[in-house]
Amino acid sequence: MTNQLLLPRNPPPRYATPRNPARKTKGGQVGRIMTAMGIPPMPWQHDALAVACEIDPNTGGYYYDTVIVVVLRRAGKTAMSRGKLSHRALTTQDARMIYTAQNRLKALKRLKDDYYLPLTRSPFKMFLDKPRWRGGEEAVRFINGAELAIDAVKRESGHGDANDEGHIDEAYAHRDNTLEGGLAPTMMTIVGSQLWILSAAGDSASSYLLDKVELGRALVESKQESRTCYIEYSAPEDADPNDPETLLSTHPGVGHTLELDRLMSLRINSKDKDEWERAWLGWWPKAKTPPRVIPAAGWEKNYIDSDEDAWTGKPFWSIDTDPDREYASIAMAAKSMDNKATCYLELYDTLLGTAGVVPALVKLRSQFGGDLVAVDASGGAKSLTKDLEDAGFTVIKVGGPQRVDACGGFYDDALVGKLRMLNDSALNSSMGNAIKHYVGGKAFIWARNKTLADISGFYAVNFARWLFREKHGENYGADETLPD
User: Fold this and answer.
1) Rounded Cα distance, 112 and 133, in Å
2) CA nearest neighbour of 70 among 362, 281, 305
């Protein structure tokens, strides 16, 4: 077989935030630092840095506040991380940076072997200050006051000084967001700060990374503009792992730093084929349950701590029932006090049956106001129209095309954190029971999963958001019935 080290394939990523040519980038500067350190960027690293280092024209800082890179083993993610952190240190006076790996010991070894030593052997040695290796205070220091430190994996990690950049390496090893929960708040006040999350694919216990992967894939597929840059190299699940072509078309390091023959030999001799596929093809263990329709990492961006002073103005109501009319849910939408949000949403209650729905809504109106109510034009809640109208409500029937708009619009907003809502276990559970049902091959509405559990609460907030978007600021005398 031809030595593939001489024939790099340079496969594209399976998922990737696209480059925005309207924004300048500092990716080339990072690449030149990598070259000066003796390891010039491979094509995949050059392309990834070009996107991740785009500049916000309004602030002059980096556009993306979060960069997630899920790539295969031995692809060079550490070299790219070293180049990016070195660039930050060399160009930003008094920059504070944190690097962490699976644990403190591994992070310290990486700090010494993969960050400090390469710098001492490069033209940038002249910019280094004396490092600090005191236990618990380890840091690579620069003469301009910049420092690259490590931190332990605990809730208070990163607390203290504001940080310009944080790199969570080997993210598959983290079981929850403890580290990010401590690190991310320290970067909130720094313009252009970035959190980098780097890893190979994880296993069944890698819940933190899995949340990031689900969010990243969803963002790329939705084409929604966000402040998260996502890049993933992995093979399609239906690819043949025994075919060398699969590896050639997946791993961006083959032909540059890795030989195809050697990697395929590793597979032949491996006793754990699943581990080989995780490391070299980016395949996760088969999930026991399907992922939620809105990834947790995106869904939780919409949470607020309290509804106190969270919304203002006149609320818009919605009602939805399950197909068997066993459950009926009431939700509301209103103008959020956060100007960056589309609206504030709340699932008020899910009742047994439909008998108490109208009296409950009358009571809510007397307390909060609002007399517009959205119901599914072809759903069970439509039967409540006459009772609602008799109680003085104006009923807006959501027809087929509007249902598609309601589901798609809610998904887009929720995915990028543009909604505001409480961390409500009932709503979370209802969303978790939903799946996408495609209509006409291109658009989707929500449907119940195989358990046939209730999703009326989830649909109710979807309809409430849609009604708010359609009617907020309009005169209630407008046409109140939309075509089916």
Assistant:
1) 9
2) 281
- Supply 27's token pair: 């990716």
Give the integer Cα–Cα distance in Å for 9 and 43.
10
Tell me, what's the pLDDT at 79?
A: 95
Give the H or E element holding residue 15.
strand 15-16
Same domain, 259 and 195: yes
Is residue 476 a part of any domain in this protein?
Answer: no
Of 247, 281, 315, which closes a domain?
281
The whole-angstrom separation of Cα 107 and Cα 181 is 18
Residue 292 in any domain: the answer is: no
pLDDT of 381 strictly over 90: yes
Last residue of a domain, one of 246, 281, 316: 281
Does residue 9 lie in a domain region? yes
Out of 53-57, 158-162, 401-405, least confident range: 158-162
Indicate the pLDDT class of residue 204, thresholds 50, 70 and 90: confident
Q: Among 25-29, 33-37, 288-292, 306-310, whose mean pLDDT is lowest? A: 288-292
Same domain (yes/no): 51, 162: yes
**77, containing H or E segment:** helix 77-91
Whole-structure pTM value: 0.83
Domain of 128, in residue numbers: 4-281
pLDDT at 288: 62
The answer on 94 and 179 residing in a single domain is: yes
CB 290 within 8 A of CB 33: no
Residues 199 and 81 in one domain: yes
**Are both 244 and 104 inside the same structural domain?**
yes
- The verdict on residue 484 lying in a domain is no
Domain count, the chain: 2
H or E element in which residue 428 lies: helix 425-432
User: By the 8 A CB rule, do 368 and 315 touch?
Assistant: yes
351-355: which pairs have CB atoms within 8 A and are 24 or more residues apart?
351/327, 352/326, 352/327, 353/325, 353/326, 353/327, 353/328, 354/321, 354/325, 354/328, 354/380, 354/381, 354/383, 354/384
Whether residues 343 and 276 share a domain: the answer is no
| pLDDT tens figures, 288-313 | 667 889 999 999 999 998 777 899 99
- Average pLDDT, stretch 360-382? 94
